[in-house]
Amino acid sequence: MSKSSKKLFHDYSWKKFFLGIKNLFKTIFIGNTRPRQMFNLYLYFLLLGTVLLMTPWATVKGQWNFLQALFTASSAFSDTGLTVKSTANDFTFFGQLIILLLIKFGGIGLITVKLFLLSLFNIGRNTGLKERLLIQGERGAPKLGNNVDVLKVGIIVMTITEIIGAIALTLYFFFFPNNQVTYGVNGDIMYYNNFWLSLWAGVFHSISAVNNAGFDIIGKNSLIPFQGDYFVQWVFIIELVLGGIGFPVFYDLYSYFKSKAQHKRFRFSLFTKITVSTYLIVAVIGVGSVMAVELLTPTDELSIWNKMPNDRALMVIFFNTMSTRNAGFYSIDLNRFHFTSQTVQAFMMWIGASPASTGGGIRVTTLAVIVVSIISLARGRDSVNMYKRKIPTKKVKMAFAVAFVGTFVMFFTTLVILFENIIIKNSGISFLQAFYEAASAFGTTGLSVFDNANLGVFSKLCLIISMFVGQLGVSTTILAWSDRKRKVTIRRVEEDVLIG
Q: At 260, is the secondary structure helix, strand, or coil?
């Protein structure tokens, strides 16, 4: 072999080596598929938030371990609300700001924020196919073409809602005294007549409510101090519903009013019809079931009706059950609900909110597709139809897969909590309490019926994974580990199997 040939072969070998290293780096740290890229991006941002919360400026005492920081960052970024420390009393302003930024970026979506800012200031080129696919997997619409418009309208609606809510809460906190609200290291600071603290509380809680996060800086008892203040509760309810309804619904409503102004016909998308109808049906059935259980249950010392006016008791049931739709705020000790009511609430958290929203769970569209497909199967139909449209078979299969994985994650987390905290620690956590906690994590709700700060390491890790999967979405998590580049060319012989 000549010298020139050897040199060419040598250069080619090194080029091939570095190309292999580059591809390996891309596969591990970036990802070859859209779901894997989303998974990695969210994981890296979560780790960044964890590091910031571990800094001495984030907490009052200036010392915190990795697991506590990871748990809080996961809860904030997934818009859950489960905490191991009091956000109001144990975090500094810097720490609370980091939590709020994690809530905001987690609620809107990282890719959504990036492309919204670029389009807002007319920076860069037009959105490419790859970026549109990433938007669709994060907060986009079923149709690929209008994803950028969907995220613009969604962010504008959420921002306006946050601003209005912040103004309303700021004025309320400033002008109306409440002695039960504690803030600061010693819990001796009040919002009343303190403008800057009221402003910060208004902004923090408005963003937390719209993004269905459940974090608060009121104290250790969430909204219990405002149990009799219906104004505050209704502000939170309106914000949590708007945050959990989904970006595509906002865009459809915007397009509807725009078409009406131009005297044009408009047809709501199938996504909007399924989302709104299922969201309302689940809310009505859930609230109605809990209300019926609490009304029919004999009154005792712990029951909601004990020593409480009827109007307040009804509001307590309505607010706390609606909060299971991903909000995470509560206005009463949740252990006062009957165990049947807690079971209903756990399943509502498992269902969650809408896709392309700030909520988690299996999502309401998944539930709708599963229910309608079962009805179609019972009627002997070959296809699944909703609102005069056929649901693709691939989506039906994915719906059942999402429900199965979500259920498995919840029950696995429940068993880990029971094993670690009953067998090892000999604590008094019941199966329903563990199941409630697991549902709260997977549904990114943040409601809890016991102090999860006492949970073991493995229990906290399982809850972190549940929150991450619930926020990112089960379907995206499943597809993150698939290799779409591999093409299956072998077709197997079909054979029938008895099931059921």
A: helix
- Confirm if 249 and 276 have CB atoms less than 8 A apart: yes
* For residue 130, pLDDT beyond 90: no
Coil/strand/helix, residue 385: strand
Q: What b-and-e string marks burial along 180-208, b requiring 16 or more CB atoms within 10 Å of the CB?
A: ebbbeeeeeebbeeeeebbbbbbbbbbbb
CB atoms within 10 A of CB 52: 19
C-alpha 342/C-alpha 433 separation (Å) is 9
Distance, in Å, from the CA atom of 484 to the CA atom of 167, rounded to the nearest integer, reads: 48
Torsion of CA 229, 238, 444, 143, to 10 degrees: 180
**Gap between the Cα atoms of 33 and 486, Å rounded:** 12
Report whether 401 contacts 478 (CB < 8 A).
yes
Q: Which of 310, 327, 349 is nearest to 215 (CA)?
A: 327
Closest residue by Cα to residue 283 from 375, 347, 220: 347
Please tell me what DSSP assigns to residue 490: -
Asked if residues 331 and 320 have their Cβ atoms less than 8 Å apart, the reply is yes
401-416 burial, b for 16+ CB within 10 Å, e for fewer?
ebbebbeebbeebbeb
Beta-bridge mates of residue 385: 390
Where are the alpha helices (H) located in 78-225, listed in sequence order? Answer: 87-90, 93-108, 110-120, 129-138, 147-175, 195-210
| pLDDT tens-place string over residues 431-484 | 888 999 999 888 888 888 887 777 888 888 888 888 878 777 776 666 555 555
278 vs 386: CA distance, rounded Å:
12
User: Beta strand 384-386 with 389-391: parallel, antiparallel or unpaired?
Assistant: antiparallel
Q: Is 292 in contact with 304 (CB distance < 8 Å)? A: no
Read off the tokens for 150.
């969907």
Q: What percent of the chain has pLDDT over 90?
A: 17
d(CA 145, CA 150): 10
94-129 pLDDT, tens digit per residue, is 989 999 988 888 777 655 555 555 455 454 444 444
Tally DSSP H helices, then E strands, for the chain: 19, 2
3-state secondary structure of 156: helix
Cβ atoms of 219 and 89 closer than 8 Å:
yes
Q: Are 477 and 39 in contact (CB under 8 A)?
A: yes
**Sign of the C-alpha dihedral computed for residues 464, 468, 474 and 478 taken in this order:** negative
